[in-house]
Amino acid sequence: MDLSIGEVAERSGLSVHALRFYEREGLFANPVRRLSNGRRIYHEEDLEWLAICTKLRSSGMPLAMIRQYIELVRQGPGNEHERLELLRRHETHVEERIRELQETLAVMRYKVRVYEEHVARGEADRLWNPSHPDAARTDSHQECRPPQGA
Amino acid sequence: MDLSIGEVAERSGLSVHALRFYEREGLFANPVRRLSNGRRIYHEEDLEWLAICTKLRSSGMPLAMIRQYIELVRQGPGNEHERLELLRRHETHVEERIRELQETLAVMRYKVRVYEEHVARGEADRLWNPSHPDAARTDSHQECRPPQGA
DNA sequence: CCTTGATCTAGACCCGACTCTAGCTTCTAG
DNA sequence: CTAGAAGCTAGAGTCGGGTCTAGATCAAGG
């Protein structure tokens, strides 16, 4: 039932270094316990929490925010509002990020399509080419009118 | 028609420091020209290119990749395929990132909803709470069956 | 008994992308 | 003529998020 840091590393996908680092950073709710010889012991719950952490991280939540969350948890019941507020804040942030990426993607797709056509016609070199002022100018106009669906 | 670094900073939204930094990093296609007194002079095209750079950056393209692109441009016509390949690689990357964010978002929304319900019923403290093994376990099961639409 | 491998700590190092500082020059307005 | 703003360079510092190293300890197997 007890897991060594190596096992946790393997199962969580984090390095042992990262696990110790996370601990120093206060990202564990309950202080990591030790064997009499000083070695860390983890349990299933730790793995579950780490899975959540990794998910939050992959969505761009900074460690500092995860720490804030876990600090609220440590303070015990009574601050559920703050916890929710924090999560919703991040939700909003992720939504905005998605929109930003989608917009860039639309512009890029459009440009790539235009470029492909030009290349096909042998008139290449007229896209995102800052050493070709003519093209740059033409193109940046196009950029102002991205695909209708954007 | 000539722009000083300060003007470019203001109009591009980048700091003068960042502009000099970008130049050192080789992110300009044509070497930035200087006045006889050593001061940099920029032109509209530079602003246009910087706008593109900023867009690419905001979509997560690393400076190193922008540099690769601009190096292809500097080499002149003939490598349009490589340029397109580079842009498509990034496109794919952005698509994947969007998917990743959408997935996390779905999970977060679900969890937040569950949490809200629990809080409403006064049974709070049962979500993403690694010091409450019981809750953690229940919850991580829920996590394995995210909203049907995910 | 000895090696191998996992662990420990403290602290150095890395990378990306800037940001800022020091010390100097140069332009512009009063 | 002079103060202040804006520029210049080289190089140091920052921040986030780790990663790695050195040197010590410990447990197990041959």
Automatic annotation (TrEMBL), chains A, B:
Residues 126-150 are annotated as: Disordered. Keywords: DNA-binding. Residues 1-72 form the HTH merR-type domain. PROSITE patterns: HTH_MERR_1, HTH_MERR_2. GO terms for molecular function: DNA binding; DNA-binding transcription factor activity. The keyword DNA-binding applies. It holds the Pfam family MerR_1. Coiled coil: none annotated. Residues 134-144 have a biased composition (Basic and acidic residues). SMART domains: HTH_MERR (SM00422). InterPro entries: DNA-bd_dom_put_sf, MerR-type_HTH_dom, MerR_fam. PANTHER family: HTH-TYPE TRANSCRIPTIONAL REGULATOR ADHR, REDOX-CYCLING DRUG-SENSING TRANSCRIPTIONAL ACTIVATOR SOXR. This is MerR family transcriptional regulator.
